[in-house]
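Changelog entry: the YdcF family protein record was regenerated in this release. Current contents:
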Amino acid sequence: MGVRIGSLVGRVVGALVLAFVLLVGSTAAAIWWTARQDARPVSDAIVVLGSAQYNGVPSSIFEARLEHALRLYEAGVAPVVVTVGGKAAGDQFTEAEAGRDYLGEAGVPADALLAVEHGVDTLESMRAVSAAFDERGWVSAVLVTDPWHAMRAERMAEDAGITADSSPTRQGPAVQTRTTQFRYILRETAAYLLYRVTGESVAGAPGIG
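Regenerated structure tokens:
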């Protein structure tokens, strides 16, 4: 009897381990697939996910996103570019401000720019953007971020009530080497699964942002 119970427990544990491995593997594959898509339907706004800025100057990762958003705007994808992101303690500028100013200096008219200066991570940012969309009667967005971040950003935007597609940037440090790409996919897999389980960003978790 004890042998049978032990065998049954072993099979259950094995099945759970296999299910977990399959879940992680399928999520990583979906992140990889989404990263290679480039959807740019005509939308209400282009939304640029924030990243680090230094005294108002976008980091190389953020700059790559902004340059991609600029090309989408010039191609007529949307009449407005929304930059989003708050600031860390001690910062003088928000990510949204830095992004707006960068695009303004690149020639985007002031009335075609909207800075949503809230959000310390993707989830907070998407909720803040959703509120701004509701105020203006907008429903659709093309999200600009790094390729590996696209699936999580889309999911959070959709959950916040935005009809979202993504057009990831193909430039910048996040896509420079295969090692970097692999590391980002692992981080995003953990972050995406944590979000699906909890419905929230989990402070300190890998890939959260």
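The helical segments are 2-35, 60-74, 95-105, 122-136, 150-159, 178-198.
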